[in-house]
Design brief:
Layout: H1 7-16, H2 19-42, H3 46-61, H4 66-84, H5 91-100, E1 104-107, H6 114-126, E2 132-136, H7 139-155, E3 160-162, H8 169-176, E4 180-184, H9 185-200, H10 208-213, E5 229-233, H11 235-241, E6 247-252, H12 257-270, E7 280-283, E8 288-291, H13 293-301, H14 306-309, H15 313-329, E9 336-339, E10 342-345, H16 363-370, E11 379-385, H17 387-391, E12 396-401, H18 408-415, E13 418-421, E14 429-432, E15 436-438, H19 441-457, E16 462-465, H20 469-481, E17 487-489, H21 497-503, E18 510-513, H22 527-532, E19 536-539, H23 546-553, E20 562-570, H24 581-596, H25 602-640
Parallel strand pairs: 1-12, 1-13, 2-4, 2-5, 3-4, 5-12, 14-20, 15-20, 16-18, 16-19, 17-18, 19-20
Antiparallel strand pairs: 6-11, 7-8, 9-10
């Protein structure tokens, strides 16, 4: 009997169980079949192994199903992995790889080897010869995984390509012609939109349906050759977090360039002169700014150049409202950074720069004016889609992550994927210590520094996770003042990422990181460090999603090794704004007053923050649902008009 239960019981559950139970039982049965082939496959030479791979291709071309060849395919790729990269798939990894082919979005504990798991379904679906797209959350991980696993596929006669925003179209087109293509989900989406634009010039209204549902519109100028199979690593980040933002390719604006630039700069200069409640109304829930009558009178009285004065008055109000909004809600080194004279957005979920992405509705230009860098001319939409629409195009959609369970109903409803927890290979030894709560932010920072200094003196490595770049730089300053040597990893230091991560688990190492050290980062530690309790993770603030917090925690205690984590929280944390600005202010005042009298209940404060986190998660979920419904109605309208729904979407 295997650890997944007796074969007879799995055979029964594979037929009569619920959807998740069937997927688990069918996968457990496949693990037995793969293991039964191991001795036979291990006896093959490298050339015979490659020939066996080619034989599977011919069997697929001859009409055999992927289901029938799956056990042999998995046994072949397991042997190839052991010979090339020195890694052998454990039974739980075989279980996870099989479950993904059953429309199960698998959840595996951080450190269980999802990158290796992916080779199983990637190879299986690549046998069909229609191209497999392997997606993750950033270019660093895509390039790393492609380089790490290419030897496995090359031994089996398959070509691997990588698509990257820095590559030209011909290079990306060549990558898509490979059996397996690695890249970020957003890059695949943008390449798809580029193809729509390339086809759109040759399309007629009568051929719009072919463009939407088939590949008849493909030309020599397009890059992608179809949407047969997508395998998504860190699927919760891609399918849920990124789904809040549509993918848009912009077209040049028709407005006079200099007039627009002058107006943005004029609004940025005067935004600070407007007072909350007196000149404008602010809605914290809807994130809107609206000028009151007093504010509008103030706009009219402002000094203006001739170009600005020629703008319609209603548009001037909008420019001022945008300028006020970015002044209050967008902070440098939090939501964005300024690098090489450009405003670059930072993804809170990954801590990385989102190259090529811009805020809509003139907000990006308003930030540029605020930071006094060159204002890019406002743009209109040439093509757009959403994450949901794009991934539903794939015939086979597979995913894996370390944190999906809390969002399992959303992925079931939208993508028809069933979340399935995969057991760990080794029992987890990670310890999660109780949260520490402080009424003032500075008290929290001092406590973090004290904890880091104490662990550093014990030679135990520490990873300090921060929510923003400026927070990482603040804690770095405090550590320097206290004589604690450390390294810092954020979007400004992305070029040194591999080097910093490789040393983060060394004796006495102290590493400060934004979420760049969250997803997909494997921090290696020695046996000496394990004997001390392993890597210790300090979280300095909770994020909008519990899943992001769990990703940070998952950097320690990987592969069954010891590790620990603890969060240091404060009443000043941004998360409390989930209750709304007014209520958050009342909560802070109430608890600080109680603390001065010695009556504060820290456990209750922690629960308040967790409740605020759930409120934000629900709000974001509603936003994704509303956007999906809007896109569905817009698509139907475009199709009824005989238009390509991915094009002709100017606002």
């Amino acid at each position: 009997m295997s650890r997944f239960g007796p074969a007879w019981w799995n055979a029964i559950r594979a037929r009569i169980g619920g959807r998740a139970a069937r997927a688990f039982a069918q996968s457990a049965l496949n693990v037995r079949r793969v293991n039964a082939l191991e001795t036979e496959i291990k006896a093959l030479t490298d050339s015979e192994l490659r020939k066996a791979s080619l034989d599977l291709r011919w069997r697929i071309k001859g009409g055999e199903t992927l289901e029938k060849v799956m056990p042999r395919a998995f046994a072949i790729v397991r042997e190839a992995a052991q010979r090339t990269v020195g890694l052998r798939h454990h039974d739980v990894q075989l279980l996870g790889g099989t479950a993904m082919t059953r429309r199960a979005l698998i959840e595996m504990e951080p450190g269980e080897g999802k990158t290796l798991v992916a080779t199983l379904p990637v190879y299986l679906y690549a046998l069909a010869g229609q191209g497999v797209h392997v997606m993750t959350v950033n270019d660093y991980l895509a390039q790393r995984d492609a380089e790490l696993m290419s030897p496995v596929y090359n031994l089996l006669g398959m070509r691997v390509g990588v698509t990257n925003p820095d590559f030209d179209k011909n290079t990306r087109r060549a990558a898509y012609q490979c059996d397996i293509t690695y890249g970020t989900a957003t890059q695949f989406g943008f390449d798809f939109l580029q193809d729509r634009l390339a086809m759109g010039g040759e399309a007629t209204a009568s051929g719009a349906a072919d463009l939407l549902f088939g590949e008849k519109g493909k030309t020599e100028t397009t890059m992608q050759r179809g949407h047969y199979c997508a395998i998504i690593d860190e699927a919760d980040s891609v399918l849920i977090d990124d789904a809040r933002t549509p993918l848009i390719i912009s077209a040049p604006s028709s407005e006079p360039e200099q007039q627009v630039v002058d107006t943005y700069e004029w609004a940025a200069r005067h935004a600070g002169e407007f007072q909350d409640r007196e000149d404008f109304a602010r809605d914290p829930e809807k994130k809107t700014i609206e000028l009151k009558r007093e504010g509008r009178w103030k706009v009219r009285a402002l000094p203006m150049s001739n170009l600005v004065r020629q703008m319609p008055l209603e548009e001037l109000y909008e420019y001022i409202e945008r300028a006020i909004k970015v002044l209050l809600e967008f902070q440098c080194d939090q939501q964005y950074v300024v690098m090489d004279g450009e405003v670059q957005l930072v993804d809170e979920g990954t801590g990385r720069i989102m190259h090529g992405r811009k805020l809509r509705g003139g907000l990006h230009q308003a930030i540029e004016a605020k930071e006094r860098v060159a204002v890019t001319v406002g743009t209109s939409q040439a093509a757009r889609t959403t994450i949901q629409n794009y991934f539903l195009r794939y015939k086979n959609l597979l995913g894996m992550t370390g944190t999906i369970w809390s969002s399992r109903w959303e992925v079931r409803r939208i993508y028809n994927l069933t979340a399935l927890k995969i057991p760990t290979h080794y029992p987890s030894k990670r310890k999660r210590l109780p949260d520490q709560m402080f009424t003032q932010a500075e008290a929290r920072w001092q406590a973090v520094v004290g904890e880091a200094r104490q662990l550093h003196e014990q030679k135990r490595p520490v990873l300090i996770g921060t929510r923003s770049i400026d927070a990482s730089e603040h804690i770095s300053k405090l550590l320097k003042e206290n004589g604690v040597p450390h390294t810092i990893l954020n979007a400004k230091e992305h070029a040194k990422e591999a080097e910093i991560v490789s040393k983060a688990g060394e004796l006495g190492a102290v590493t400060i990181a934004t979420n760049m050290a969250g997803r997909g980062t494997d921090i290696k530690v020695s046996k000496e460090v394990d004997a001390m309790g392993g890597l210790h993770v300090i979280g300095t603030e909770r994020h909008d999603s519990e899943r992001v917090d769990n990703q940070l925690i998952g950097r320690s205690g990987r592969h069954g090794a010891p590790g620990s984590s603890q969060f240091f929280l404060s009443l000043d944390d941004q998360l409390l704004e989930g209750y709304g600005t007014a209520k958050a202010r009342r909560i802070r005042e109430s608890y600080r007053s109680a603390a001065s009298n010695g009556g504060v209940q820290k456990d209750r404060l922690v629960k308040l923050l967790r409740k605020a986190q759930r409120r934000i998660e629900r709000k974001h979920s509603r936003g994704r649902t509303q956007m999906m419904k809007f896109e569905k109605r817009r698509t139907e309208m475009q199709e009824n008009m005989g238009l390509d729904p991915f094009l002709n979407t100017a606002e």
